[in-house]
Design the sequence.
């Protein structure tokens, strides 16, 4: 895995000694706390914005036991909190929770991935996915929550905050920015309920490094600042609540535009990989890191596609990979079904 400095080109005119002594990063320091270390026996739930999906997929790709966004991508704190309450209540959705628009049945609690042309099919998608999440909820001991924006859309008719407007007319909603106190009050209740159900639960908040420039740079900064202030207060007020500075890493360590995708707002694959590496360096146990290396090596070997698959050499390679997998499962039986 390449480190950040591999992507930088030394300035012309600097001597080798000067290059070696110059730090080309503003390093974001992350407190390393033993009580929040993550292992392969942990059950993880990742909720929130696109960045929650990025980190969740990285965890799943390294065979961690993780459930990712059972409602689809969620951007604002209120929608994420509402989703947590649904999971805790084990709510079953029915037709009264849906609405029809342009031949599609949809839910204000879900992304458009769950929409369908019939009520039954839409409810089947929603409740099947939620049943999977409910079965895991009582065992989850690491909760990752990623806030994307402090802006919310409230349905005028009901006054509730929706997770997705589903392209309904703008006039149907009131758009406003949450306050720090609103977020803190809402999540103080959620955290108390979560920790009452599971005192060992570890909660890690992040603020998405994806900038929302539709309203301009200043409004984006106000939104992100609101989220950062709220998380900081929650961290100060509750035990086993932590903050991973993905936003700060993107803004300070990866401030060059080469670390952005073509829209100049989303992190590039290199940036996501780097932030993932920082996440693992800080939150994974030493034993977890060692096992992760073995798992990633097995996955690479298993994914190898040769130019000549019918050779004896490749047959021997496949046998070696099978032995490698059997050895890992024998030593770490909890990986069964993940490898």
Sequence:
């Amino acid at each position: 895995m390449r480190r950040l400095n591999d992507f930088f080109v030394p300035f012309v005119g600097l001597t080798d000694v000067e290059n070696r002594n110059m730090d080309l990063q503003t390093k974001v320091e992350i407190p390393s706390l033993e009580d929040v270390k993550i292992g392969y026996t942990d059950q993880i739930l990742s909720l929130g914005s696109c960045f929650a999906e990025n980190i969740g997929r990285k965890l799943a790709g390294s065979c961690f036991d993780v459930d990712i966004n059972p409602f689809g991508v969620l951007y604002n704190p209120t929608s994420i909190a509402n989703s947590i309450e649904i999971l805790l209540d084990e709510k079953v959705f029915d037709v009264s929770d849906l609405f029809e628009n342009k031949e599609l049945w949809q839910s204000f609690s879900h992304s458009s991935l769950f929409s369908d042309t019939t009520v039954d099919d839409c409810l089947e998608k929603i409740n099947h996915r939620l049943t999977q999440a409910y079965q895991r909820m009582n065992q989850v001991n690491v909760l990752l929550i990623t806030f994307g924006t402090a802006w919310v859309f409230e349905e005028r008719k009901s006054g509730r905050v929706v997770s997705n407007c589903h392209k309904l007319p703008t006039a149907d909603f009131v758009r406003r920015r949450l306050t720090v106190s609103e977020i803190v009050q809402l999540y103080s209740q959620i955290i108390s309920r979560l920790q009452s159900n599971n005192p060992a639960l570890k909660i890690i908040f992040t603020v998405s490094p994806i900038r929302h420039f539709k309203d301009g740079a200043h409004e984006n900064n106000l939104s992100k600042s609101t989220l950062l202030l709220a998380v900081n207060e929650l961290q100060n007020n509750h035990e086993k609540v932590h903050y991973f500075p993905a936003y700060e890493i993107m803004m300070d360590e990866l401030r060059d535009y080469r670390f952005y995708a073509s829209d100049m707002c989303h992190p590039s694959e290199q940036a996501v990989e780097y932030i993932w590496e920082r996440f693992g360096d800080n939150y994974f146990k030493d034993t977890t890191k060692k096992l992760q290396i073995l798992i990633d090596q097995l996955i690479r070997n298993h994914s190898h596609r040769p130019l000549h698959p019918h050779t004896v050499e490749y047959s021997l390679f496949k046998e070696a990979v099978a032995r490698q997998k059997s050895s890992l499962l024998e030593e770490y039986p909890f990986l069964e079904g993940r490898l």
User: Anything to note?
Assistant: The longest strand covers residues 43-48. The domain at 33-284 is CATH 3.40.50.1110 (Rossmann fold). DSSP finds ten helices and ten strands in the chain.
